[in-house]
Amino acid sequence: MADTPMLKFVTKGQHYPEKRAPDARATNFNEISTSFPMPDAEEQASRCSQCGVPYCSTHCPLHNHIPDWLRLTAEGRLREAYELSNATSTMPEICGRICPQDRLCEGNCVIEFSGHGAVTIGSVEKFITDTAWKEGWVEPLIPGAARGQSVGVIGAGPAGLTTAEYLRASGYEVHVYDRHDRAGGLLTYGIPGFKLEKDVVMRRVNRLKDGGIVFHEGFEVGRDATMEELRQRHDAILIATGVYKARDIRAPGIGAQGVVKALDFLTASNRASFGDAVPEHEDGTLYAKGKNVVVIGGGDTAMDCVRTAIRQGAKSVKCLYRRDRENMPGSQREVANAEEEGVEFVWLSAPIAFEGTEHVTGVKVTGMRLGQPDASGRRAPEPDPGSEYSIEADLVIKALGFDPEDLPKMFGAEDLSVTRWGTLRVDHKTMMTSMDGVFAAGDIVRGASLVVWAIRDGRDVTDHMHKYLKTKARAEAGERVAA
Question: Between 374 and 323, where is the model more confident?
Answer without folding.
Answer: 323
